[in-house]
Specification:
about 110 residues; alpha+beta; 2 domains; three-stranded antiparallel β-sheet; about 25% strand; binds zinc ion
């Protein structure tokens, strides 16, 4: 019994496609899985002050204590390669209102009413 080369090529490409789909599925499931705690919570008050582990955050450059907060993606090359880097973890970045210095924290910020 003889096999046509095009059938062998089609089976090979089908298996390759299946492997790529499986790989992407594992990557997406891993990214969507709940993440373990990444440190003491970053607590934001209404007046622009922040606190971590019971200590108020102050700017290491100017000593200011008012910040604005943004969530920044911590991109990885693999998820960026497949253009699904929105699945990557994020960090909280505090920007000093007075001098603009950036301070990074691994955990998300939580707002607390005072
Ligand atoms: Zn500052």
């Amino acid at each position: 019994m003889e096999f046509d080369n095009s059938i062998i090529l089609a089976v090979f490409l089908g298996m390759l496609l299946l492997l790529v789909i499986l790989f992407l599925g594992v990557m997406i499931a891993g990214a969507l899985a709940p993440r373990p705690s990444r440190g003491a919570p970053l607590i934001a008050s209404e007046d622009g002050h922040f606190e971590v582990a019971g200590k108020r955050i102050s700017c290491s450059h100017c000593g200011g204590s008012e910040f604005s907060v943004n969530q920044i993606l911590l991109n990885t090359w693999l998820l960026s390669l497949f253009r699904i880097d929105w699945l990557d973890a994020s960090a909280s970045v505090l920007t000093c209102v007075k001098c603009g210095q950036l301070t990074w924290f691994n955990q998300d910020s939580a707002k607390v009413d005072e």
